[in-house]
Structures are given as C-alpha cells and as structure tokens.
Design brief:
The complex is a heterotrimer of chains A (495), B (492) and C (95).
Chain A: H1 9-17, H2 23-41, E1 44-47, H3 49-64, E2 75-79, H4 106-113, E3 117-122, H5 161-168, E4 174-178, H6 185-191, E5 194-197, E6 218-222, H7 225-235, E7 265-269, H8 279-294, E8 298-302, H9 310-325, H10 343-354, H11 357-370, H12 376-396, E9 402-406, H13 422-426, H14 433-438, E10 442-449, E11 455-462, H15 467-481
Parallel strand pairs in A: 2-3, 2-4, 7-8, 7-9
Antiparallel strand pairs in A: 1-3, 4-6, 5-6, 5-10, 9-11, 10-11
Helix pairs in contact in A: 2-3, 5-6, 9-11, 9-12
Chain B: E1 12-14, E2 17-30, H1 69-81, E3 89-90, E4 93-96, E5 106-109, E6 119-124, E7 130-142, E8 146-148, E9 155-159, E10 166-172, H2 179-196, E11 208-217, E12 227-232, H3 235-254, E13 262-267, E14 272-275, E15 288-289, E16 296-297, H4 300-308, H5 314-325, H6 329-336, H7 339-349, H8 354-371, H9 383-394, H10 400-413, H11 417-423, H12 432-445, H13 447-455, H14 460-470, H15 477-488
Parallel strand pairs in B: 12-13
Antiparallel strand pairs in B: 1-2, 2-10, 2-11, 3-16, 4-5, 4-15, 6-7, 7-10, 8-9, 11-12, 13-14
Chain C: H1 5-14, H2 21-38, H3 73-77, E1 83-84, E2 87-91
Antiparallel strand pairs in C: 1-2
Helix pairs in contact in C: 1-2
The chains are: A alpha/beta (495), B alpha+beta (492), C mainly alpha (95).
The complex binds magnesium ion and zinc ion.
Chain lengths: 495, 492, 95
C-alpha cells in the first residue's frame, strides 16, 4: 500500500469519501513508512502508532456515517514545539525531558477536531533555534534529498527540519511547523515542499512552546499548494486564549487557488539582489518572474530599503524575547533538574545541562541586550528598525499585491558543513526574516533544482491577512514549475 | 470650607543638630477581583496548595496571559480616587528575575508607561492637621507565589496560589516626614481603597503591604541615600521600622559613617531593621514590553463611566459632614476613616442635631465598641435605635444622664428606646411642684450646707446632685438649678 | 571585543547558566562577533521612529472577571521533578 503515502491530502480525502481505502489503512501505511525510514532520517522524535490507529478508527466511524471533517483521516506529523495532551513534548531540548503536557495546543486541537490523525512528534532545532535542525537534542535530521552522485547527508533546513523531511519523504501527508525567522519556509525550500508562515495572529500561539513571542507563528507544510491551503483552513482560528490572535474570519483558502495571477501585480524588491547572490538563485528568481508574467501578472520593481537591517535587528529581538521566554525552564515545575547546593546552583546546573550551545548563546545575547544600560541601544533600537521594515512593506504594497523573492541564499548544505561561526548559519534566514519582523504572511514554493540536483524554493510575501492571494500566486508558480522530481528513496530499510 | 494644609517641615533633633526624615512608600494593594490578573484561577485566600492555580499561573510551556477587565477597572477606579492622571494607553512589561515562587522567571508589571500617573492623598494627622502626600504612579502587576521554609530542614516548599493575583503598586512621592505621617498615609490610603472597593486592605492576609524608603538629611540639603525596608505588613510596624531606621541612619551619619543604599528587613520581634544578605550581583531586571500582550488601551468614555459610578470619597464626605452637620474637622475625620462608621453616623444624624449625633456615635458608641473589641458592623445598637434615643434627649423626655442608662439597656437587652423609657419610668420630671418638693426637702435637711452656700455659691452643685439623687436623676437639671438659685438666694 | 570575559560571566550569572572558563572564553568571541555585527544598525537614524509595539494592527481584548480555571493541583505538579503534598519542592531558599 505504499502508494497511499504518495497521495496528496486532497486526493486522500476524496479517496476516503469514496471508500477507496480506510483511514486505518492510510494510518498504517504511514506508520510502516516511518518505521522503515526513521533510523535513516530521524525526522520523528516520537512515533505514536497506537494513537494514530485509534484516531483513524474514529475517523472511519465518522466517515461511515458521512460525518467526516475537513481533514478526516489525514495522517499528520506535529513539530515537537506543539504541546500535545498526554504525549511527551520537549521542543527537542534536554531541559524538557519527559514533559507530558496535560493540555493540547489550539492549532493541534483544531486539526484533531477536523478529523486529522496524529502520527507522532517531529524533530526540530532545540527550541526552534537553528536553520539546519542540527541543534536538536535528538540529533540531526537528514534531508531525503542528496546531491547527485553523493551519499553525504544534507540538512533539511530548520528549525522545522523534521517537518520538512517527513513531508518530503512521504512520512506524513502534511505537518505543522513554526516560523520565527524562516523556520517553515527555509526548510520547505531545502526539501522541495511547500511551507507557509501565516500572518502574525492568524494562528493561535496557545500551547506552542514559545521562542520569540512577537515573531513566532505556526503554519503548515505539505507537498502541494492546495494541501497547504487545506491545512491552513483548519489551523487558523481566533483564540480567546491568545490575545495576539486576530478576531477575523478565516476564508476558505482553497476557494481562489485556481483564479491565477491575471490582474495581480507582483513586486520584485531590488534590495534582495544582494552582493554575492548565487547565479543559480538569481536565475531561479528570474524564472519565477517569467512564470508569473506569462500567467498574466504585472511585474514591478519595488524597494524595501531597510532589508539589510532585518537580520541584525532580528538577532536582537528574537534572543531578547527568548531569554525571557526560556526563564521558566528552571527545574522547579517540570523537565530536567540537576541538583545543587542551593536554589541558585540548582538553577545554574539545570540550565547548563539542559540547554544546548546555540540556545545558551541566544539566551546570553538576549540577556545582554536587555541588561541595564543596553536596552535603548539594542532592543529599543531594533524595535524601531522593525517599524521601518514594516513601513517599507506598507509602502511597497501600495504598488503590488504580492512580493516575489528567493527563499534561501542557496540549496541544502551538508550536515556539519556550516558550523563554527554562528553568523554564517544566521545568514540562511536573510530572505525570510524580514517577513517575521513585519508580521506578514510568506510562503515557499518548490521552483526547481540546484546544480547539485537538490530543491530550491521561491518565496512569496503577502499583505497582512491576505494569505488567499499569496496562495493563488503560489499555485501559479507550482503550475508553471510543473511536476517536480521527488527525492530518490534511499532511506527505507529493507523489510 | 477650604482648610489649609500644613507645610510639612518636621525636624528631629540629633546630637549635632536637626535632621529631616524623608519617607516614600510603595504600597502593594491586592486588587479585589474574583479571578487573577491574567488567568481564570480564583484569588480566594487560604486554599489548599496549588489549587488556585491555572496552567498559565504555573507558567507551563506555551501558556499565554489574557487580561482581566475588572482588574483594569479597579486600577482606574483607584486612580480616580487618588485624583490621579489616568493613562489611556499603558504598557505591560516583563521584570526578569529568578525565584522559585516566580514561575515565569519574570513578573508582568508596568514600568515606563503605567496605567495611572500622578495624584495625591490628603493625610489626616492625630493633632487635626493635614498634609498632602503626592502619588507618583500606580501600576498593575502580578503577585508571586509563596515559599515556605519551615517544612523541611533542607528544602523549601512552593505554593503558587497567589501567583498571578493582581496587585496595584502605589508609589508615593518622598513627601512623608515622620513615622506618624507614614502611618496616617497608609491608613488614609487603605480607607480610600476600601471606600472604592478596590482592595480589602486586610494587612494580616497580605492584601496590603508596604515597602518603605527612608533617608535623612540636614534641612535644606539634597536627598540623602535611602534604605528600602521591604514588605512591612502592619501599620504599627511601619511606624516602628521608620523610627528605628531614621535613628539608625542619624546615628551612623553623626558618627561620621555613611548610609548605603540597600534593602532591609524589619524584624517585628526586635523592632529593628536589618540588612538583607547582600546579593552577589546588583539587580538587573531587564525590563522590556511583554510581547504576549498588546498595549492596554482605554477610552475616555469608559473612564468617565467608571468615574460617574464612584461613591463619595472620604475627603468629600468629611467636607460635607463639616458643612452640613456642623462637625469639627477632627470629628468628621474620625467618622469618615471607616465608611461603615460614616454611614452609621449619617443614619443617626439624619434629621437630627449633628453635634449631638456625633457625640453619641464617636464617644458613647465607639467607646463601648472599642472596649469590647467590636467593629461598627457588630454594634448591638442600631443606628435607628440610637437615633430614637437621641430624639428622646432632644425633646427633653430624658436627660443625657438617663440616656446613658437607656443606651446600656439597648446594648445589653435591645428594644425600643421610647418604650424602655416609658415602661421603666425613666422619663424626665418637668413637673415643677414635684421638683420643688424635693428641693425643699434637701434644703431642710442640710441647714449647715445652706449657710456655707451663702459664702460659696459653687456649693449649689452639691445641692443639684442631692436633688437629682432624690429624684433618681429624672428631674430636669435646668429646673432644679433655677429653683435652687432662687431658694438659696445665690446670684450667678 | 564588545564583550569582555567578566561581562560574559555576569550575563551567565543573570541568565542562571553555569559556564566553565573555557566556555566563557569561547562565548567572549562569539558574543562579541554577533554584537559587532548588529552594530551596523547604528547606521540608521531612528531618533523620530516609534518602536513597534504591536505586530498586527489590533487592540488587546480583555476577559470577564470569572473564575474558570484552577482546582487541578494534580495536573499542576504532575511533571514536577520534586513535589510533596501538592507543593513544589526546591533546595532551601536562603534570604
Ligand atoms: Mg517596587
Ligand atoms: Zn511591585
């Protein structure tokens, strides 16, 4: 039944309605695929087969009664940042070792309420801090894609690297991710999947382990734009428990997918043509422009003058908020505790042993920029720069409907290839981080392959709460790019 | 009637000259509300450990704060009661520090933009003078949990029931100049909060606690270095802590020492303040706006509607009592210090002589209540009963002296004053014939005293006493006086 | 170096993370590198720019003053490394 895992969500949902297969069969197919693949890919940090089969059985009952929800019987993987009731949730950090929430995040609750089936918890960079999934306490995730003629393990991007790899390798039909600086779009680009970061406030943050509260946003991964829209339909909601979630109607994002881009104006920000932009990235971007033009869009150069300041200001705001958000991991109420002579040394020992190097680095940077005498120079300054970045976009969106950029400065790199200098890793988010700073929606769509035969993505940026237009334009790119090559399956153990 | 407020320039004499004590206070007042500031858990006192705790209060991963509108309204009401500026936009900040009873690792508070700005409190002192203490600001913040240190030799126990309860931190300007003023300030603040219903003011349960900043200086000098005495939880202790601390600083300075800026604790057993074990590092709270919370925005209409619903506040009530009932400022201050007391008085004084009413309420009633350790709401004599009793005095049915006996009966047995007077024959005798007979009898029985009275007119008092005794106090004192003067031939 | 060794230790203390001298040496370089890099923000004049106080254009909602939560002490302490009688237990706190 392995072809079941190859289906899109839309096709699987239709097949379930037509009784071509059962939710149980769909779940089983995925569970066995995970069993056979996870040793090689390490995409899942926890597989929940019993729960999956239980949920699938319930789905089958509802389907039999004709009461199936929008995602009835669809097997999904959940980033380990989402708290799942009764299922260990650790944000892939040692400090949350064994933590079993007695509550369910709003986004996952929405998914289960729509009938989706949970396969397990997906790997990610520790506390979502990273761009390669190498900072996870559970070890790195391997990208299902490999360079042509090479066995080297590539990174799946990060922080939602487990999500991107699992979707790319057909270990789930869709997955949840979170995106603070590019953590959905960058891994999507590096694995040939679609990843969408909604407008800040579109999805509730309640029950998601916080990294940087003013930047974090949950979003979906899938293999097609349509599937991405289907997932967003369910994940998005106004939640009274998150007062930063917006009280706005959630439209059916699939409704206008096929409307094309005729009549839309696509902005091309000249500042994204950075020094040293790789020729193949520039070429891909130009290709995207041509596709959209050919589909009837008007293309226009726009200017986002503060682009180059987005990444440095992000590396003030995000660590500052993180340093405070991660103060609760103190060995008192949950997770790891390493004893000490007194309370203070218990704290220090616990946090020393519980946090990995990247998390510590960011906590320390964040602590520093907020400390006495530095607040104005760093945090306040960065929040002012954010205002300028937002104004740039407001201005640009007076002249266009969506903005097209590359998602990443390059294709997937090998595990261990970028290490040593943290700044080099940070540069991965150079095109995605502006979107978080301005709270806008962004999507990465697979658009072609690199010279190494690995995927590349294009990013579309939309107006606040206009994910519908974003998805329309993404659909046009997907249509123009045509059916993409899938990664060669090297990861499945012989049964 | 506008009274003058005294210039506040109290001095203390030291060995080497005069000193001025400068006091500022930060009062933490627990907001009266059903649920916590950012969670739906109960604020109830004295519950089982961690039973009034939500996932938000325990800072579980992914939990988010949602603000309680009533706590905001209570802060605004308090601001209005303090005649303070209400800021239509304010910001919640995180104050970051580690402590086991602070689950989030930060306290949500307000730092640069509090909900309430400058205001004032008029403080009534025992000698009848009043001073104005400026309010710097009032902000909303979360309370922390409680750590218990005496359950285990090597462990502390943490209960988060208080964690997240709304507090108003009310910061005064350094306008206070003595322990007496400080005590009176806190009392007055508590009175205002209770009138408003925004804090129950219960210091034993920790609903109201004060941090006291004390410094001393030579008159005219700039402010000296201050010490902050943390969490003093009774008005008496506030006075003791200041007395001790001011004297400690003066002695230190007079001996050529220096005051260090530090946090000190008041030890109720010894009445002394002591330095808290100095921390290895200075506090660095890394305040920044809480990214989980948007700016708190209020409309002027909403503030106005809260304002129009406010009750009459103690200062206004005091003015009205002075104006409408002819009370002395002192009596009026005593009455309004407690709203129930003022209400009681008003019920008694309604349609009656205010001075007579205040005399009975402040002296007879409160005297008796104090003696028996009762509060006004426990009074066995109702306002209605006391009012009727006063009516009997006013229309000369009974004398003031008899009224005290009737009051005593009301206190112990209850009943209707008129009926008591009637059935027990306590009515004042105004029949001149009967009084005259009693007067004649006393004069006849005491010829020697009659002689003396001719020399010493004050002796008449003795005769009045004898006549009153003979009539069991029921004779009208005025009538007895007039008759005696006439018969003894005493001129005034 | 924008950050010296003593500052690294002070910050680690504030953040309650024990670090060895060796780590402090490494962090001194890394943190300085990051801070030197973010210093490019100094190029922009932000004197008249207000800081961003909200990401989405929306107002904060408030909830009613109703008790809707609590009475779940078991859940609250369920994940605690050490608990006793529904209390969290920590090494003795010395004032
Ligand atoms: Mg304070
Ligand atoms: Zn405070």
């Amino acid at each position: 039944m392995s072809e079941l895992t190859n289906l899109t969500i839309a096709a699987a949902r239709a097949g379930l309605d037509k009784k071509e297969f059962s939710a149980k069969e769909l779940a089983e197919a995925h569970v066995s695929a995970i069993e056979a693949a996870n040793d090689a890919l390490n995409a899942y940090v926890l597989v929940t087969p019993d729960r999956a089969l239980e949920m699938a059985a319930e789905s089958d009952k509802r389907l039999a009664k004709g009461e199936g929800g929008a995602l009835e019987g669809i097997p999904l993987g959940i980033k380990d940042l989402f708290c799942t009731e009764g299922v260990v949730t650790t944000a892939c950090s040692k400090i949350l070792e064994g933590f079993t929430p007695h509550y369910e995040s709003t986004v996952t609750r929405n998914l289960w309420d729509a009938g989706a089936v949970m396969l397990g918890k997906l790997n990610n960079d520790e506390f979502a801090m990273g761009s390669s999934n190498e900072t996870s306490a559970f070890g790195p995730v391997a990208n299902p894609w490999r360079r042509e003629g090479s066995d080297d393990k590539l990174v799946p991007g990060g922080s939602s690297g487990g999500s991107s790899a699992a979707v790319a390798a057909n270990l789930c039909m869709g997955a949840t991710g979170t995106d603070t600086g590019g953590s959905i779009r960058q891994p999507a680009a590096l694995t040939g999947t679609v990843g969408l970061k909604p407008t800040y406030g579109r999805c509730s943050r309640w029950g998601i382990v916080a990294f940087a509260s003013s930047l974090d946003q949950a979003g979906p991964f899938a293999r097609t734009v349509e599937d991405t829209a289907l997932l967003l339909n369910v994940m998005a909601s106004h939640d009274p428990r998150d007062t930063t979630s917006v009280d706005a109607p959630v439209p059916d994002f699939t409704a206008s997918l096929k409307d094309g881009v005729k009549g839309l104006t696509v902005g091309i920000p000249k500042e994204y043509r950075i020094d040293g932009l790789k020729p193949e990235i520039a070429k891909l971007w130009d290709q995207g422009v041509e596709w959209l033009k050919a589909a009837g869009a008007t293309v226009k150069e726009v200017t986002l003058p503060h682009t180059k300041y987005a990444l440095p200001s992000y590396y003030i705001v995000a660590p500052a908020e993180a340093s405070s958000n991660l103060a609760r991991y103190d060995g008192v109420r949950y997770g790891l505790r390493v004893d000490g002579d007194d309370v203070i040394s218990m704290y220090e020992n616990t946090r020393e042993a519980g946090f990995g190097a990247e998390v510590k680095r960011r906590i320390l940077i964040g602590t520093y920029v907020l400390s006495a005498g530095y607040y104005d120079a760093y945090y306040l300054k960065a929040q002012k720069v954010r205002t300028l970045i937002k104004r740039d976009f407001d201005q640009a969106f007076e002249d266009c409907d969506v903005i097209l950029t590359p998602t990443t400065p390059g294709p997937a790199f090998a595990q261990g290839e970028i290490s040593g200098d943290p700044l080099e890793m940070y540069l991965n988010d150079i095109f995605t981080v502006t979107v978080n700073m301005a709270g806008l929606p962004g999507i990465s769509v697979p658009a072609g392959l690199s010279g190494e035969g690995t995927p590349l993505g294009l990013q579309l940026i939309g107006k606040p709460f206009d994910e519908a237009t974003l998805l329309r334009a993404a659909q046009s790119i997907e249509d123009a790019a045509g059916p993409l090559k899938r990664p060669e399956n090297w990861w499945t153990k012989a049964a | 009637m506008q009274e003058t407020v005294e210039k506040n320039d109290l001095l203390i004499a030291g060995e080497t000259g005069d000193w001025e004590v400068i006091i500022g206070m930060e009062v933490h007042a627990q907001v009266t509300s059903n649920a916590k500031l950012f969670s739906g858990a109960s604020t109830g006192f004295g519950a089982a450990p961690n039973s009034h705790v939500s996932l938000v209060d325990a800072a579980m991963p992914g939990m988010l704060p949602v603000i309680n509108s009533e706590c905001v309204a209570q802060a605004v009401r308090t601001g209005l009661g303090l005649k303070a500026q209400i800021n239509l936009t304010s910001i919640f900040d995180r104050k970051n520090y580690f402590y086991p009873d602070l689950p989030q690792g930060y306290q949500i508070s307000q730092y640069q933009q509090p909900i309430v700005g400058e205001g004032e409190v008029i403080v009534d002192l025992l000698d009848g003078t009043r001073v104005v203490v400026g309010i710097e600001r009032l902000h909303l913040e979360q309370d922390a949990g409680k750590s218990l240190h005496d359950q285990h030799p090597k462990k502390s126990f943490v209960d988060l029931n208080r964690s997240g309860v709304a507090l108003m931190e009310i910061v005064s300007k350094p306008d206070i100049r003595s322990s007496e003023q400080a005590k009176a300030y806190v009392s007055k603040l508590r009175t205002i909060l209770r009138y408003l219903g925004t804090c129950d003011g219960n210091m034993e349960e920790g609903s109201l606690r004060a941090d006291v900043n004390v410094s001393v200086r030579r008159p005219g000098d700039p402010l000296g270095t201050r010490a902050e005495i943390k969490n003093v939880n009774s008005i008496r202790f506030i006075g003791q802590a200041i007395e001790y601390e001011a004297r400690r600083q003066i002695e230190l300075l007079e001996e050529g020492g220096e005051v260090v800026q530090e946090t000190r604790l008041f030890d109720a057993k010894t009445g002394e303040t002591r330095s808290m074990r100095s921390k290895e590092e200075a506090h660095d709270y890394r305040y920044f706006p809480d990214p989980d919370l948007l700016p708190l925005e209020l409309t002027q209409d909403w503030v106005d509607s809260l304002k129009s619903d406010l009750c009459e506040l103690p200062d206004e009530k005091r003015e009205r009592f002075i104006r409408d009932f002819g009370l002395s400022p002192y009596d009026a201050s005593v009455l309004v210090a407690e709203k129930e007391r003022a209400d009681y008085f008003e019920a008694v004084a309604d349609g009656r002589d205010g001075k007579l009413a205040v005399n009975w309420v402040n002296n007879e009633l409160f005297g008796r209540l104090n003696k028996e350790g009762l509060g006004i709401t426990d009074s066995p004599v109702s306002a209605d009963q006391l009012g009727k009793l006063i009516d009997l005095i006013a229309d000369d049915t009974i004398s003031g002296k008899i009224a005290k006996d009737v009051f005593d009966i009301l206190w112990t047995e209850g009943g209707d004053p008129a009926e008591i007077v009637e059935t027990r024959g306590m009515k004042q005798v105004t029949d001149t014939g009967a009084i005259e007979a009693a007067v004649d009898e006393v004069i006849a029985a005491n010829p020697d005293k009659v002689e003396q009275a001719k020399e010493k007119p004050q002796m008449i008092g003795w005769f009045v006493g004898q006549v009153m005794k003979a009539t069991q106090g029921k004779a009208s004192p005025q009538a007895v006086n007039a008759l005696l003067k006439d018969k003894l031939g005493v001129e005034e | 170096m924008s950050v010296d060794r003593a500052t690294v230790h002070r910050i680690a203390k504030l953040a309650r993370i024990a670090i060895t001298e060796e780590e402090a040496a490494r962090l001194e370089g890394e943190l300085s590198g990051i801070l030197d890099w973010v210093a490019q923000l100094d190029e922009i004049d932000t004197a008249d720019v207000p800081p961003m106080t909200r990401v989405a254009d929306m107002k904060m909602k408030m909830r009613e003053d109703v008790v809707t939560d609590g009475d779940c002490a078991d859940d609250i302490v369920a994940n605690a490394p050490e608990a006793d009688d529904d209390y969290f237990v920590v090494p003795k706190i010395v004032e």
